[in-house]
Amino acid sequence: MSDTVRERLSADRRKNRPVSPVPARSSRTPLGWWKNPWRRPHILATATWLYLAWSLLPVLIAIGLSFSAGRSNAVWQGFSTQWWWGHPKSDPSGALFVSPELRTALIQSLRLSFVTMFLAVPLGVAFAIGISRWRGPAPAGANFLMLFSFVIPEIIIGISMFLFFTYLLKFVHLGTGAQLLALVTYQVSYPVIIVRARLLSIGKEYEEAATDLGASPTQAVRRVLLPMLYPAILVSFALVFADTIDDFITVRYLSGGANTEPLSVKIYNFSRGTLTPAINAAATFLLFSTLVIALLGVLLYRRLTSGQRGQTQEMTDYLS
Amino acid sequence: VPDLGAPQARTRMRVPWRRRARDDASGAWHPRWYWPAFALPGALWMLVLFALPFYVVVSIAFGTVDPVFQSPLPVYEPWWWTKRYLLEEWHFATGEFRPVEVRTIVYVVLATAVCLVIAYAVAYYVARFGGKRKPLFLTLLIAPFFISYLMRMLSWVELLQPNGYVNSVLSFLHVTPHPINWLDGVPFTVVMGLVYGYIPYMILPLYGFLDRIDQSQLEAARDLGANPFRTFVRVTLPLSKPAILASLVIVTLPMFGDYYTNNLLSGSPRTTMFGNLLDNSMEATGQGPQSAILVLLLAVFLMIPMLYYMRETAKAQRRQ
Fold first, then answer.
1. Beta carbons of A316 and B298 less than 8 Å apart
2. Among all residues of chain A, which has the CA nearest to that of B184?
3. Strand, coil or helix: what is B72?
4. A168/B13 Cβ within 8 A
5. CA A5, CA A11: separation in Å to the nearest integer?
6. What is the C-alpha to C-alpha distance for residues B162 and B180, in angstroms, rounded to an integer?
7. Is residue A70 classed exposed, middle or buried when 0-12, 13-18 and 19+ CB atoms within 10 A define those classes?
8. Is residue B30 classed as helix, strand or coil in its secondary structure?
């Protein structure tokens, strides 16, 4: 290559190099800054951070207030755990783990959410597997019901369940039994939707391969399909638990008396009347138990999907 | 994929099934009842505990009333249904309740519009400019899903109290001479509460969609001379129309049934919404079939958005 050619090449390169469409100086003036098409999206960034602060700071303040030393639930009055475990010097009867009322509610909350979780998820997973392989009008109708229960406002389910147990199924008394039946009905659509999405992305090939290799249908489901569904099942467990322990709409109408009201209903009732930081402690407890379950779910999920790509993508897909 | 132990499995495969059906498009042979058996428990559950309660609601709405106790007497035979109480309630709904219904629609439309503007900005920023911080942003955006709705409302109840932090900040900045009583029937508080409560459910689906938009389409628009704003208006916005519609429905459906946001943040008859009518009808006894009729009206009113949302959910599953 001769020198002239090399020179010409570099000159071409210089000519073709990306030039900033707006001279650097003009971006110093406000108008130039505004007109610069390559500027960073500062306004959007500020809006996003402001939104995040607005969305999460109040909750953090509420958590902080549960450790307040005073009776006020509007102003922080020094650190104390008296609203959690009580304090010998103050009246301990209002604390979350001491007050008999709140303790009963706490146990009821945990009982309802665990039983609902272990009823709704297997029911939903089996339904999702059946519905995605069984063709015809009957499964389409069943799936329609399932989706309907997913999109319907919860208050409609709550009231219709209350009327159902009061006027038709009178042998189911209002209380834990009715609450559980209603909660499972409302929650079962989560695992169905999540697992179905996963099933459709898996396809039938793995199962067919298994049966071609001599597995019985049950073996194919149990040893090939189910392991592939574990991530979706875990996400369903976490979501159903989180949603059930916070639920107060359906449950409130179906609690027979004060002793079957879970913590969420107590928080709702107290929020409208006399608030003490013990209510903040109760809400914080619900939050922590949800986080523990979610964290367990994430850890197990990581274990089960290690080596697979797009985990966060999949998580957001499930939630959206 | 676990080891299948092929030889034994093959002999088990030979067990003669009397009735076998060939799955469409799949080579596997299953007995005809095999997949229905998976779906049946869930389907029966939904039939008995979701469809039947709704029939009870309809039977009460078209039923009669106990002359002494004023309690509803459901009529389960459609040929004996009467429209009398339904018409009476309709009369209420178009007369006495009309301010409530108008207010509900105004609040929901306002809150949804604010939700959309904020949610779109945040989702757009995170999807396009999130960069390395995307996992952090996503965690913060998903966090409200695991914080109970009650907890989030409770934190605002506490912040907005007369001696709460919002008022102290405002008086510190000399914005108002006296603390504002935010929690006493202020429409602004209720609409803000609705926005705060439901916006996370809007951001995530929008993000999920915007994240999947092919960046090369935006680059093409920019290469063809469109400035960022024009690119957004002519390319991004039209592309995201389905996601916007779906997220609007996701948010408005529960808002129409919402009574708790209103009860916690206002509790005043000046801001009563349709959900409050439903809830009040449950708390008062001797209202006859009122709550059943209101539930029916709400369900009919929301039927089109609900069907739309169901179709979108089913479509989203097929897409994955």
1. no
2. A272
3. strand
4. no
5. 10
6. 6
7. middle
8. strand
Question: Which residue, B72, B30, B53, is CA-closest to A129?
Answer: B30
Distance (Å, rounded) from C-alpha A218 to C-alpha B30? 10
The tens place of each residue's pLDDT in chain A, 320 residues long, gives: 445 544 544 444 545 555 555 555 555 677 776 666 667 788 889 999 999 999 999 999 999 888 887 777 777 777 877 788 777 666 656 778 878 888 889 999 999 999 999 999 999 999 999 988 887 788 888 888 888 998 899 999 999 999 999 888 888 888 899 999 999 999 999 999 889 888 888 878 888 888 888 888 888 888 888 888 888 898 899 889 988 998 999 999 998 888 889 999 988 988 877 788 888 888 999 999 988 988 888 888 778 766 554 545 555 555 55
Using the structure block, give the residue that is written with the tokens 């409530």.
Answer: B100
Largest CA distance in chain B: 87
Cβ neighbours of B13 in A, within 8 Å: 211, 214-216
Using CB atoms, which residue from B38, B145, B146 is nearest to A127?
B38
Pairing relationship of beta strands B29-31 and B64-65 according to DSSP bridges: unpaired
Residues comprising chain A, all counted: 320
Q: Which of A34, A48, A129 to mutate to test the interface with B (most CBs of B within 10 A)?
A: A48
Question: Can you tell me which residue has the tokens 């000519």?
Answer: A15
Using DSSP, state whether A312 is helix, strand or coil: helix
Q: Considering only residues 222 to 241 of chain B, which have any Cβ-Cβ distance to chain A shorter than 8 Å?
A: 222, 227-228
pTM: 0.84
Nearest to A267 among B26, B154, B205 (CB): B154
- How many angstroms separate the CA atoms of A35 and B293, rounded? 57
Q: Does B12 touch chain A (CB under 8 A)?
A: yes
The whole-angstrom separation of Cα B124 and Cα B12 is: 55
Judging by beta carbons within 10 Å of its beta carbon (0-12, 13-18, 19+), is residue B2 exposed, middle or buried?
Answer: exposed
Q: Which of A247, A251, A244, A263 is nearest to A161 (CA)?
A: A251
Question: Both tokens of residue B18?
Answer: 């009397």
Do B126 and A53 touch, CB atoms closer than 8 A? no
Report CA-CA distances (Å) from A317 to A133, A195, B320: 22, 12, 9
